[in-house]
Amino acid sequence: MVIIRIKGTVMIETLQKFSPAIVSHKMDLKLEAKTVNAFFGKTQALQNVSLSIEKNHVVAIIGPSGCGKSTFLRCLNRMHEVAGGTMNGTILLDGKDIHENDPVNLRRRVGMVFQKANPFPTMSIFDNVAAGLRLNGMAHNGHIAEIVERSLQQAALWNEVKDSLSKNGMSISGGQQQRLCIARALAVNPEVLLMDEPASALDPIPTAKIEELIYELKKDYTIIIVTHNMQQAARVSDETAFFYLGEIIEFDNTKKIFTAPSIKQTEDYVTGRFG
Amino acid sequence: MNVQVEQKIAFSILFLCTLLVVVPVLIILVIIFVKGAGALNLGFLFEMPTNGMTEGGIFPAILGTLYLVLGALFFAVPLGVLSAIYLVEYSQETVLSRIVKLAIVNLAGVPSVVYGLFGLGIFVLFLGFGASILSGSLTLGIMILPVIITSSREALESVPQSFRIVSLSLGASKWQTIRHSVLPHALPGILTGTILGIGRAAGETAPILFTVAAFYLPKLPQSMFDQTMALPYHLYVISTQVPGIPETIRYGTALVLLLLVLIMNLAAIILRYQFRRRKKW
Q: How far is the C-alpha of B107 from the C-alpha of B87, rounded, in Å?
């Protein structure tokens, strides 16, 4: 490893090429962002963001409003381009560049939960969970009911709604709606789950439920959660990335970020001195 | 002047003006209904005119109007809805798309007699369809195209953006998103526009004047290359061109046309109401 330090990145890449096991032996990387720059028109929203996310880990992204954390999340499932943005740099999912393939396939593997619970208002609870399957034409394999039940159970909502699956998706409480959206995202069987401030519109008790859920889901999924709430980041995540003005300031073990950050700005933010 | 009195005068003027708008509509409806209701019976609706149109029914004109409306919809609805989908969902804000949108707005402002002349020039003469149901339907179709495009665009734009985003994030393609997450919600609005188009196509005289309408035909049209009688033109003919037509037949014809258009507009209103009530976002 001494050689690597001397020769820098070039050496790492060469080593990877000949023996990819050297890196993956250390950790099982699910997602890897390398020098990602993102733009809205001419405005740069992200600058040289590099981040490695391990499989079955929860990574929290914190930072003040407008720091690019949501933009980064949207780059990971290429929803950034849907909003009219552009990006350069490389993002690898299981070692493969996500821009090499159709974004449709990528988004089946990288699910997303939004800030505001947004069940389809004209659909029942059942149909909401099944929506992704039907949209993707995965409905014909005949196991819809099974998949819907499994997804609702994973989202810890099954017991609350199993007798009212035909009721409208908007008829349940806000926290339940958000878990319904999580179930909807899980139904298409993704590998990664992106959550954009999933609990910011919820009261403390439903928020706690979502957090418990994240802890459970981490067994099967890799989760990246954007949050404004630092206690939440501290509670749910394994690693935390602090974003500021479109740059990644610090990325480390969550405990370290919240107890002994190495950079002054991070410390100021997590102790509430700004942001 | 006292503030209260001033306000009362202002409100009274506003109220009177509003009332004046309603009065002509009511008078037209009442006169046509009173004078024409006597003519309404099954024979009037389903028989051929006889004795130089002074007796018998107006069946060929009703049938002709139905043919023309259906024909116009056949051309205008697919074209209008599909181009609205393109404009709302696919096209970027470019010079071209702005020109297209401007063209649609202007198309809506073209006087109907100009459509008639256009139809005569293009469909009847240039393409050689002659004065026929085909030419008339195409002309009416172009006339109602802006109505259908505009209402379809509004319907599509009123579907919340989050539906599209969620659908895409679930791994649906853009077309799947439009087909399953956008169109079903826009459908009632699109239908409303279509029905308004029907009302317009049924009622206009000028576009069919040179392209299809016949003064009098002894038998019903056999194909889309035949001429046909149509309600608005028939009404014009029996009111101004042929002497000695009984008043009840004239007003009866007007009443049938009016009822046809009113029923269609009513359907549009009911549909829109249903749509608004079902909306929960």
A: 16
Chain A residues with CB-CB distance to B183 below 8 A: none
User: Secondary structure of B38-67 in the HEC alphabet?
Assistant: HHCCHHHHHCCEECCCCEECCHHHHHHHHH
Residue of B nearest to A129 (CA): B170
Q: Is A182 on the interface with B (CB under 8 A)?
A: no
- How confident is the model over A64-96, as pLDDT tens digits? 988 999 999 999 999 999 888 999 999 999 999
Query: How far away is chain B from the Cα of A170, in angstroms, using its nearest Cα?
Result: 8
Task: Write out chain A residues lying below 8 Å of B165, CB-based.
Answer: 79, 82, 114
Residue A128 contacts residue A184 (beta carbons within 8 Å): yes
pLDDT tens sequence across B268-279? 788 777 776 665
Are B124 and B135 a contacting pair, CB within 8 Å?
Answer: yes
Read off the tokens for B111: 């006087």
Q: What angle do CA B66, B185, A75 make, to 5 degrees?
A: 140
B126 vs A67, A146, B68, B122, B167, CA distance in Å?
63, 62, 20, 5, 47
pTM: 0.79
Chain segment B100-120, per-residue pLDDT in tens: 889 998 988 999 999 999 999
Nearest to A135 among B167, B280, B281 (CB): B167
Look at A132 and B173 and tell me if their CB atoms are within 8 Å: no
Whether residues B180 and A132 touch (CB distance < 8 A) is answered with no
CB burial class (10 A; 0-12, 13-18, 19+) of residue B11?
A: exposed
| Own/partner long-range contacts of B128-131 (Cβ < 8 Å, ≥24 apart) | B129/B225, B130/B225, B131/B210, B131/B211, B131/B212, B131/B213, B131/B214, B131/B227
Whether B177 contacts chain A with CB within 8 A: yes
Domains annotated on chain B, with CATH: 59-277 (1.10.3720.10)
What ipTM score was computed for the predicted complex, to two decimals? 0.82
